[in-house]
Amino acid sequence: MEEPSSHADNTGTHSGNAPHATTGVAASEEVGDGDPPAIPSASSSNYLTEKSVGESRYGNKTTTIASHNDSERAHANRVAHTLSIPALATQLKTDVSTGLSTAEAERLLQEHGPNRLEASGGTTWWRILIRQVANSLTVVLALAMIVSWVTLDFIEGGVIAAVIILNIVVGFSQDYRAEQTIQSLLALAAPDCNVIRSRQFMTTKAENLVPGEIVQLTVGDIVPADLRLMTAVNFATDEAMLTGESKPCTKDAEMIFEDNDLPIGDRTNIAYSSTVVTRGRASGIVFATAMDTEIGKIAQLLRESGRTQDKTQNWPIRTAKSAWHGLKSGLGLIGTPLQVKLSYFALILFALAILLAIIVFSANSWEIDNETLIYAICVGVAVIPESLIAVLTITIATGSKAMARGNVVVRKMGSLEAIGAVTNICSDKTGTLTQGKMLARKALLPSQSLLTVDGEGSPFNPETGTVKLNDHIVDRNIMVCPGELQSFFHTVALCNLSTISAPTDSGLWSATGEPTEIALQILAMRVGQSKKDILADHPMTLLAEHGFDSAIKRMSVVYQDDRTGSICSYTKGATEVLLPLLSLGAEQQKDILARADSMAADGLRVLCLAHQHLDPGMTEKVSDRDFIEQNITFGGLVGLYDPPRLESAGAIRQCQAAGITVHMLTGDHLKTATTIAKEIGILGPQVPSSASSTAVMTALEFDKLSDRELDQMETLPFVLARCSPSSKLRMLHALHRRGRYCVMTGDGVNDAPSLKGADVGVAMGLNGSDVSKEAADMVLTDDNFASIVSAIREGRRLFDNIQKFLLHLLISNISQVILLLVGLAFQDRYGISVFPLSPIEILWANLITSSFLAIGLGLEGASADIMTRPPHSLKAGVFTKELIVDKFIYGSIMGCLCLVSYVIVVFRIGDGDLGIDCNENFNETCDLAYRARGTAYSVLTVLLSVMALEAKHLTHSLFNLNPGSGNSLVQNLRLITQNRFLFIAVCVGMVTPFPIIYIPVVNHVVFRHDHLDGADWGLVFGSLVLFVAMVEAWKASKRRRLRSRDRVAEDRVKESSEGSSFV
Predict the structure, then answer these.
(1) CB 839 within 8 A of CB 860
(2) What is the DSSP code (8-state) at residue 904?
(3) What pLDDT score was predicted for residue 573?
């Protein structure tokens, strides 16, 4: 074990008359990184012990406490390390055994405020408003508005001003709601901590902690506030962030110091907020929260230092930095990777808009009047996808909300963009693929006697089930005489940190702790040998606890008999890990290993038990783990059954259908893992290469291979047994070298590196440590593998919808560019170009019609084939080859149909005379020009509306959106109408031309077009039919190519299989 770092000038003594306190923690559900950041907390459910007899580190020792005046006592956050527990509890008006009452905690919360650090960041309403105002679209429209007013065209200027205000208001409301949704979801992931209130264990948000709370801590927790420790069992924290000390600081709850100004690194009776528990467990009293904590003081100093540094800089530099940050925020260059990528794309289009404006000026021989200038500006507007970022924000917000409903809390929004592209999932077994509710089914004693359990009911109810020894029922009387059975149950119960609670109002038994330890404690309780019973019959004191470590896969405790003074250690762990430590010969070890293999082949998780008696004089050596865990006596094997979750097999089948490979990375025995993997479908005839020699491996075999040897393997292991955190990391690196995108699950402290290194790290909300949750991108609130699959489904839906609304927006842009640029060739009697669309028509089509249709596409549900397609490539991103080709095909078709309709009205129906000065106002010569313009606008609006329906699927026909469902007309109509927002937007888009065309004044003065007759509406209808036919024809050709490609791939696989069979 590591020794604590040396401390100078830390004279201290031990306290007496300290009360017993409960240690451990209950389960938590989520963790997050909301803004402002809540102080992280203890929320791991790894351990929760009983109110513990023999576990208190307090004894009847003399105490020396330096006197303090009332002023010093009023500042508990400064002198807490100098106070005894009773003195501090009195000062904070709390009771260490019952905790605060709920009412008192609420009152103190109002008095002290939330337990979170003040943050200068975060998204506020004014930031969102600035983001709406300070963007390229608003700037361009404002320029057009100014030009209109300067040229005294108040109607057009007023309409553009209304459009600007409407765009800002709608954009602000949508963006604000989306941000509120995201922040509320991050609040779900805010850290929890476990406290005692009114004698009850309960879980509360860390930000609700107040001074006087009694908090429980264990390995992997992040301390939620500054605590004066009450109990500490082998407890140490990593305080590098505060002290710079690289070694964990060992804590001693019994120490009391005299120096008020003792350096914080020497205050070994204090656990500081935001430090990480590296070993052991403890409980303590909160004496400082939020900005009063040591980490809060540092945060305040940093903020003041930042302000001081800013003040020392020249004001031009400060102004430039602020302006640059504001510009980047306004342009959308601050956000998730996808948001930034799309913002850069929008800037490219903005540059294109400038180029198109130059083309407009050139077409008019640079004779720039006010209408030409406004038209050039509006042509630029037609190219800019003005609703792009707003629709993306809304889509991400709805995706996050949907994931939360599916028990997945998104901590880092960038993971939403990656989860849909994953190709491999590396999952834990216990509690994720299995139920995590273990049952002790079988045990083998050293004498080869067989212990079995029959008739269990609830996994948490010790009153059900019968324990038999060689078919004879075991009762309490057998436990009177010492022997192997008693040693077995002592090891099971004492080397255990779980807590079983009797029924309360619910009538159900409950338990907290690791599933393995809960099952073992229940087994002991069935024969009256719980930890509480044993310590009541045989009073003992806990001398040392060496917690379970995933690297060495074992745990030990050391107890001393209060009557005789004898010392005994109890150890449990993986069989192959404990065998070399046993005082047995090679043949006996081989026999034990064979029996463990036999139990594992039945799907049981096998643990080895051992114990050792020590001389009473060895109390000084019990802290030496190597000494305690050598030459120990074999105590038996116990087999635990953890049934697979009912939904695991179906979820794995969905992954395989979606082209996702599932790997099980577990600490279990090889045969146990293999049995469960076959049962849930990770291994089997339906999985290619699952029969290969490398499909199932132990971590020992895997770690012996070099990176080159791993890269030469045909497939990486589907099952990796006895897996350590370092093995997980190697698996992750091996997958990345193959160009794979990986989800990695984890729950332990040591899983943090692999969670951070994964493309999407997923932590367990129920049984995960705080450290793992902080490192993860997502947190499962139910620890269920099926929830990961739901998140992948939602990620794919999100990706699809982004492609859909991108396609629609870009088609609109391309079609308008074709119409507006080619339309400049049509001139009036004086040789001036007559615009095929008026500026207001362009703005209306882009800001009203297209925007709502794009939002509707962003809210689309998942398509029927979403989990039967292979993963998309993150390298290509949303701008796939298919999307790029489709947008040019559909945009060209739409633009050409609008142009052809305009030409037919002008030259076929009319005589080609476009009148005089028909760009600025209506006169008797403008009938034809206004009529042609109205026809082109109507065709554009109707085609944009129907294109939104066609964009529901990039390949499937609009008339058969779910090809595998039998092509029912009713069902297809249901699919078309199920997205009500989109359906209503389409319907409104289809009928919008009628009022705009026929309402007097609005048509001539505002939109500058005229009403249509039957022939014109015939052109609109004909364009609609032709457009749908050509889009459907293109989709049909895409489907044919896909079928042809699939047939070629199947033939290649068949040839490969036949070749392998021949060999």
Answers:
(1) no
(2) I
(3) 93
